[in-house]
User: Fold these one by one.
Assistant:
Number 1:
Amino acid sequence: MFLVADGVVLVVALDRVITILLNGLQQGAIYVLVAIGLSIILGTLKFVNFAHGALYLIGTYAGLLVTLQIQPTGGRLADWGYATLGLGWGFLAALVIVPVVVFVVGLLMERFVARPFYDRPDTDQILLTFGLAIVVQEVFKILFGGQSYNFARPAWASGPVHLPVVGAFPEWRLYVIGITAVVVVLVYALIEYTDFGLVVRAGTRDAEMVQLLGIKLSRPYLMVFGVGAALAGVAGVVGGPLYAVNPNIGTEVLVPSFLVVVIGGVGSITGAVLGGILIGETLAILVAVAPQWSQVGIYLLAAIVLLARPQGLLGTEEVAP
Amino acid sequence: MRETVDDDTESFTDARAELQIHRNSDPVNLRLRLRYDYAGTRQTDSGADTSDFDPADRTTVSTEADFVVNDRVVFIGGIGLTHADDTNGSDCVRYSFREVFNTTMSAQALAPVVTDEYGDDLSFYQLYADYNWGQSQQESMNTYFTEAGWSQIDSVATPLGTSDFSSFLSQVPRDEADVLFLNHYGLDGANSLSQAIDRGLNEDVEIVMPLYNRPMAQAASGAIDGVFGTAAWDSQIDNEPSNQFTQAFQDEYDRIPSGVAQLAYAQTLQYAAAVERAGTFYPPEVIRQLEDYEYDNIGMGPETMRACDHQAHRAVPVVRGLPEDEQEQGQFFEIVELTPRDEIGYGCDEGPAAECDLGPYE
């Protein structure tokens, strides 16, 4: 559709192509952040964590409360007389504090939820974590009410930025892409170039052998869960201003993130990045050419990838039947 | 709506009404309790707290219709999103009534105000939620704004469940379009409007949000600044029933009631009054009391609950979003015009009503 001989039309087409690519990148970015945590937990610990979306939810609400001051109008907190809630310390404070908070939540989750279920079948893990996700969601609904809160974009990144060729583009979305890129590089370096990462990778390949060599895996596993959770926390803070905040956002982000893991391959950070970009770009391209098929398209993409490469694009082992 | 009588007598001493709406197809019940003395004078009413309404509520019209027909339960709609034309058009049923206006009436009320504000011969672009209500609303906007001399560039469906509209918004031809209609409701509306502002679309086009509700306005916050739309009811409507309701609600719940809360109360009282007039809870008799009933006591001026399509014909408030610094708890809009019912609506043989076949009483 863009192969037009006329020079002027070609410029317009290029502008559209770049806009679509940027749209795809920013849509995929949040999924990448959530999916990396999901993927390394699933790949390393073999634990199917359907409560990962709940960690995103906790991250978003925590981010909201650190960044701004809100007036709860529904839920128990309002009934208990909390007319105003939140620290109002700004977005950068949230970006530092929230991942730490969600990291701790992740440690607790590993110790008290995941660890007792490591040797149980996937179905048990799914039931447990799915139930936990619902509990967390409902607790937030009880406390904050079912209504949505506005997580205002930081003043320094609010509104459009006028880019060459593309024109007006939401500035915050560029930050989302940037923050995601930085976080991905950090996590990649952690797994690829540190002793901790070496143990984790070795444990992923053959846990029994690693333990026979005298390395205790429970602590690295705990850390992996914490890091995965912290990533969901980062995603919650970064993604919070993109959508109105309500207790359902955790569930909404979970399904596309699982698709990213399926497409990219379990346990692969590069795979999660690739899967996220593919899903984002598929969405953006379909919106431009066949909008009604945009949601269906990502599932179709996952189905095609699974048929061609059941282990995912960069996964090393097939998902057990 | 399902009713029970608390004691064994046929008196109306303590009637409970259970309203059922649907949230993404899941039924959500609201229980209301009305107490009367033996003379039929209402003593107290309490219990309807609609603050739990999720702005993402999308009433499933067909499920609702099945529910009222199969269970022979009188349903007075208008709570949540029964705003599509089909509800009291091709999908109308004898056991369902609608107090709130529909997409045709929203468009009829908006067209003169919006064209007067933004000018003649403009081009508009629409995004709409791809389900019955969104389709109905974009059709109505196209019909009445085209009639008013504007022309549609395109109308694009956004799949149900979309929360990131940024890619759709990037397709809006900002050089070509003068106005953008965002036919999204509740949470979808809050997301699409905020994302449109974030993309700077308001620098090049005027944005119209044809149907507002309060949770949506609250979630969209400053993004609604200057954006036209219609709303079911607003506490700023200054007449005796409205003021009385606002005061009573504030006394009870210590906050300003939303338009949806007003609808819930008005409908429950409407139903209770119909039961009183009928002298029975027997649905066919209650229905006969509601049909062609004229009333002027819920704060929206004189109204008729039309017998031919069970659609209330009443005024439609056209509102405009307030800037963030002027928004207060429960106060998000300025009322631009309360379009009287004579200037909107259609005959029983026109528009959606022409397709309505209510079916039998029993």
Number 2:
Amino acid sequence: MSIQVQGVQQSFHGHTILEDLNLTLEPNKIYGLLGRNGAGKSTLLNIISNRIRPTHGTVTLDGESMHDNDHTLGKIYLMSEVNMYPERSRVKNLFKTTRLLYGGFNDAYAAKLVHAFGLDINARFGKLSTGYRSIFKLIIALCVPVDYVFLDEPVLGLDANHRELFYQELIETYSDQPRTFVISTHLIEEIANLIEHVFVLNDHHIIVNGEVPDILAKSYTISGPQTDVEAYTANLNIVGEDHLGGITAHYVYGALENDRPIPDTVKVDHLDLQKLFVILTNTKEEATAYVN
Amino acid sequence: MQFNFNSTEPIYLQVADQIEEAIFTQTFVEGEQIPSTTEISKEFHINPATVLKGMNILVDANLIEKRRGVGMFVIAGAQARIVEKRRDQFYTDYVKKLVSEAKKLHITQAELAKLIERGFSAS
Amino acid sequence: MSTKLRVTTRYLLMNQLKALGEAFLAVIAIFIIIPFILAVVSGNLSDFSLPNTIANFSWGFLIGAFIFLYDSLTYDNFKLFIQNGLSRKTFWAAKIVTTAIIAVIGELFAAFYRYAISAPIWGISAHAALMKTPYSLYGNFFGSNVWINILVSLLFTIIFFIATGITGMAIGGGLALLSKWGQRIVIVVVPVVAIFLIGFVGNSSADKQVHYDFTWLANLLKFLIGYPQHEPAIAGSFSPAVPMITMLIGGAIMAAIAYGFNQLLKVKN
């Protein structure tokens, strides 16, 4: 029981977008898919949902191919930024179409969400604002009878109140009826405690793939006077550094040396997910821009 | 209840700490139900599994118990157990730190004792 | 028929019937109401004959054009279906089933209109009405029993509509793979080249000086439309069998091409 992405590679016109990518999505978990603009998050989601075909590699659900297969495709839903619905159709008719094509739809929950978000179901999809397009697609995503829901930028254009409401409803429906959610977003802080497992996509590869507490447990800030910090972090996996006045901070991703004494002048803290993400995905230019 | 998300402590431990604190201050009264996993999860955008992990620490510590189909309840005597535990930890959590800071500030033992007396009389 | 194919077909069918209804209303508006208003405005009401206008509708052309155009629309439906967890294969199959159903419904409607409405208004027999259609080339093939000839004409036209629709699917499927720019270029360039080629063939056949020999092409075309091999070629006695088989084979080839293009469909940007 899982979605397996195996050896997926994608290139467009000689440009590599994804390279030898492998990952597993297990049932009933909430995942975060993080990556900078252009890192290939949407491409990966489009490959999983068979909207595009990878140059190499396979995607399977419970061992069955995802390619051109109603049975597996009908068990997933991808909410994406690209608008897939006919512009002239009315919201209420699109709900009906979804019910017909997916073979089910939680009408009662949809009605509740429509009311809570203030969505006009008589409006035509093309006339909705960016925020309400997101809300419309979110409502469908939460009401279709699938095992895997992929949310690509789910809160695009949503104000703070609607974002709050969305996260609450996400947890509510997840608690009532557990299924897998994969959330791809730039608003890392908002989902940092919501996701159990995180993937970070950078430079065509997955550079982080693990349970969030485990990842954060091995992410450290070591700060203090430069010489002491450098002495302590020698040979450790230093992924970034900052300097402020006489204080140096080294960011370490990986295990510390347990038998190495921590000098009194040096402070060891953990990083939060957003900070870790920024450090791991900074370009060289961005990283040096901090160092003054 | 509130969570300090800048804290470097894992979230499930923070959940356990916050519920324990609420029992200690009698916000959650013995014998009564505490908020459900989903309620806490929804309020603070924390994964339900994480909240449950935090609650299980308190179940193991005999502070709360699960009643099937109803929810989590504060066990009788939980507050007393928390007080006992905190007394045990008082030396490491507060006294050691206090003395260490006092030393850095060149406060003598006698001066510190006086300050403590002053603290008691002020409150 | 799998559940997914059934629901996809139902969706396409409902949408197409609705669009076909709208097209019918548009045609009625354009060919009855506007001429009528013009006649009233210009004071030539006596020139306007409602029964004649009604009788002269030839729905077959509208249905053929509609099936072709609707089947060529590909990308928007593909997006909606892949969003709803339906495979390319199912989309393709549902389109073919829908085309067949619309072809049958459309032709039955057109035939009913021709023989039950137009013919009485014109005051002509069913046979005469049949001979006013493009099928007149084959209209007497089955002898004097007009109803058998009409029945075969229905089958013939239905096959023609289906083959036309599937050709539309293949063309639309190919266009859907191109960028907007590519689509524009193809839509402009292909007709120009086709006209040029037709002109070229026509000229070289007429001009015996040039030694391109296109008689084989002429013979092939004659064969394909069912031109009699031995008997004198009298319109009405051509054989509908060869063109029907040709359309079936052509339709199958187009269906295969459409399937190939359909497999290559992907969501853009």
